[in-house]
Amino acid sequence: MTATPGLGTPQLASPDLLRSVFRRHAAGVAVITASGETGPVGFTATSLTSVSAEPPLLSFGIGTGASSWPAVSRADHVGVHILGEHQQELAATFARSGADRFGAPTAWREGPQGVPVLDDVLAWLVCRVVTRVPAGDHRIVLAEVVLGDPAGAGRPLLYHQGRFTALRD
Q1: 43-67, pLDDT tens digit by residue?
Q2: What does the pLDDT look like over 72-92, one tens digit per residue?
Q3: What is the mean pLDDT of residues 131-150?
Q4: How far from the centroid of its chain's Cα atoms is residue 139's Cα?
Q5: What is the pTM of this model?
Q6: Could you tell me the end-to-end alpha-carbon distance of the chain, in angstroms, rounded to an integer?
Q7: What residues does the Flavin reductase like domain cover (predicted)?
Q8: Is 93 left (phi over 0), alpha (psi -120 to 50) or beta?
Q9: Average pLDDT, the chain
Q10: What domains sit in the chain, N to C, each tagged with a CATH number?
């Protein structure tokens, strides 16, 4: 392996390399929710991607070891919530293992198709799960938008260098 001028020394592929590179990639922050057998489930996701406008499709990744995976693996519908910069604590709650994600101070209601819908987000969607594609230790969930609301106020929350942050002017 040879060094590329100005780019440092390349590293062989590894989980650490992938994590290190993606810490440099700023990503929007979303919370994915679903209705589970024992109540609502949800997790923080930075892997949300718009896939198609016609039909309106999106995708997100979820680890098969995640506490939300059993419910998401069976759910017909999921909620997708775009968080605002004022929701760092909410993002951290949904990212934290073992947290009471739907307890106070999380404000939410049961939405269309029984999907938990979070209050005060920049935008939310309810989506019908189309398929779940195996991808290493994750699944890529492909979902079709059924309905939603893009009218929340504020600026987006971002994830960069291992922490939640906001846009700078």
Answers
A1: 999 999 999 999 999 999 999 999 9
A2: 999 999 999 999 999 999 999
A3: 98
A4: 13
A5: 0.92
A6: 40
A7: 22-166
A8: alpha
A9: 94
A10: 15-150 (2.30.110.10)
What number of other Cβ atoms are within 10 A of residue 169's Cβ? 3
Tokens of 79: 């909620």
Edge-first strand order for the sheet with 163-166 is: 27-28, 157-160, 163-166
Amino acid identity of residue 93, one-letter, is T
Report yes or no: 125 and 82 within 8 Å, Cβ to Cβ.
Answer: no
Which residue type, as a one-letter code, is found at position 143? A
Q: In angstroms, what CA-CA distances link 7 with 12, 17, 47, 75, 119?
A: 14, 15, 26, 44, 44
The whole-angstrom separation of Cα 80 and Cα 71 is 15
